[in-house]
Predict the structure.
Amino acid sequence: MENKHNIENWDLIAKYFAGECNQQECDELFRWRDANTENEQLFNQVKKDIEIINLNKSMNKVNVESAWEKVKNRIQEDEQKLPVSEEKSTRFILTPVFKYAAAIIIILGIGFFSNKVYQKFSGGKITYEYASVAEQGKEIILPDGSKVVLNANSTISYPAKFASAERKVQLEGEAYFDVTKNPEKPFIIDAEDAEVRVLGTSFNVNASIPGSKVEVFVETGLVQLARKDRQDEKVLINPGDVGILYSDELVKEKNQNQNIIAWKTKEIVFREDNLGEVVQVLNNVYKTNIEFKNPDLLNLKYTSTFRNQEIDSILNVICLTFDLKTETKDNTIYLVKHDS
């Protein structure tokens, strides 16, 4: 397994998790896995993804060869759409290239391009980039043991090994961080025009707000939020507070949004909130497009708590409360009165 980027090596990994490796193949795979930290991280990431889709229980229900051909065709189509990468850089898609996992991914309805992991080589260094297009709540373990939960339509980039002086990652979109403490090596997040710096804490960074606004909510510990090109413009954010970087100012305030990390926890609380505000929260958490055909519904007050419920279930409860119904058209869900 000298070339770990060869498709045949990914086939061997997939065969192992499908329980179809012979002893010689297993020994070869384990030698590759134990050769260095990068190989071990890739192997463990694959193991986690395979467990999630319950590969072993489903392996005998699919046409592997047919599914693999479909996946290869989609890989080729997707690569043609990708921008030209940096010279001497290579990219590969992690989970979906597995010949034996392909059919499971298709059957379970996991979007083939909903999540991508790229590995880039530049200047002798390895960088990982994880792009979550559709899936929420994807947990990523960084090289220092820090945990990142990535929201949908978000991307995080990080080195295979952090530098000796700092731990730096790049974020596009929104993510929740649980950072391993290391006073000697600060953890730094570059997000839009903001730089977030911590030593070890848990917090949420949202860089997907319109207007290039970056919002940082701190659950535990202490976080510094600064403007990337003006390090003298910074604030320290305490637990329960929110730091917001606008185009023209940087502020800190008490968090008033009880659903600020509901996209991660899937616990949504409404306390006499306007129905218009309720729908805004649901659209943010579930990435839906819910609207009203009757503007007079916007100011209706609503109180309820939802924990780990599907959006259809929540809408059913809301409709029963206010005698409404849903109508769907062009990927938009409309809440309307029954007599409309």
In short: Confidence is low (pLDDT under 50) at residues 1-8, 52-64, 85-100, 102-114. The radius of gyration is 23 Å. The domain at 124-257 is CATH 2.60.120.1440 (Jelly Rolls).
